[in-house]
């Protein structure tokens, strides 16, 4: 209750009650949290008036005050005017420099500090890592006299966040001891770098080979990996584990479960988790709305959007991606444009490239290709490869060769080495029986010198996730895989499904 602190301090001054060295830190910290520079400066003047200019704790909070509003020179003036400085004061000033990207001044002051405790060492270590200077961080870490577990975990997270998983793995093996933050550093590093199979492997190792119990941050990373890999069985196990270990009502875990079930196509399970949540945040609403929209439940997504607004939750840019996606799946072209405009007019959200892409998809699905091209031409942002690929896909569905050729031209300008674009246009030519154009495109695709990456699938097998590629006969169980695939095709065909298998050179 920071505002009440400041108001109470004003009452105290009016009643002529003399403040002491414990009063000012509380008041100044409240000013920092309120970003109230004017009130903070008034407190500073009273600090001088009552003779606390050299008090180290008061001085540290004043440094934090000026740092919070970007007045580094004022912070340093407070620091330099203090007669007695302790390690906390030095740490505050060094942290001020780090917060504003001045690592040179921070290191210079660090070298001058008469006393350095582990907090001061860790402060500079974090500064190097947050600004991406991993080599400097490692050099500092290596000469630290008394590393604590926080130091080790800080370096571990640094490697993971700076895309060096080899360094992260090596340091993890060197750890003198491991706590939950150590395991989360490794698991989070894998997640941050898109190595989701390793996320699950590390999680299993944590459960089976350590006495450390996962927390909500661990479970969220694991659920995210399960969602990306389609590892539904393991995700269900995590759900049961969460319910049995006190995380049933944890909002972060629940959001992860909604995402898992939605991405795995189990919309009813996603809705059940959402409905049973006592407290919902913006991510909860966005995840379920986007999940419903992605799986064709557009009407339910729009209904939830209305409920969200009635609940007082303000939508953001992510919410509107789901809403526009819902309109696209339902063919609600006019409604889509109304929502797009309300995003700007009612909620002051500046449309991003993803929102423009949703409108292009909306028009393309509805067969309004000319209107879609016109919309792209008038966009304030330059269309990216996703938008032109979306348009190219719509051209294939509606067999429009003219706009397909335009989309391919744009895609060649953006990514000339990508053979997938030629494959899609080739399929359109085949559908239109333009065999000369098919042959010409095959030559053009070959001349790129690139090959289309084969399709890759993953599936849960015996408590693990296995990946296999299209036409890959090197897999140790390829005979079983293709036997299963042929069985699945027969089941699909028995239900009336006719596969659209079109080949173009080394394409699909």
Automatic annotation (TrEMBL):
Entry annotated with the keyword Repeat: yes
PPR repeats: 86-120, 148-182, 250-280, 281-315
InterPro entries (UniProt xref): E_motif, PPR_At4g14850-like_plant, PPR_rpt, TPR-like_helical_dom_sf
Keywords: Repeat
Pfam families referenced in this protein's UniProt entry, alphabetically: E_motif, PPR, PPR_2
Record-linked PROSITE patterns: PPR
UniProt-listed PANTHER family: PENTATRICOPEPTIDE REPEAT-CONTAINING PROTEIN (PTHR47926), TETRATRICOPEPTIDE REPEAT-LIKE SUPERFAMILY PROTEIN (PTHR47926:SF371)
Name of this chain's protein: Chlororespiratory reduction 4
Source species of the chain: Cinchona calisaya
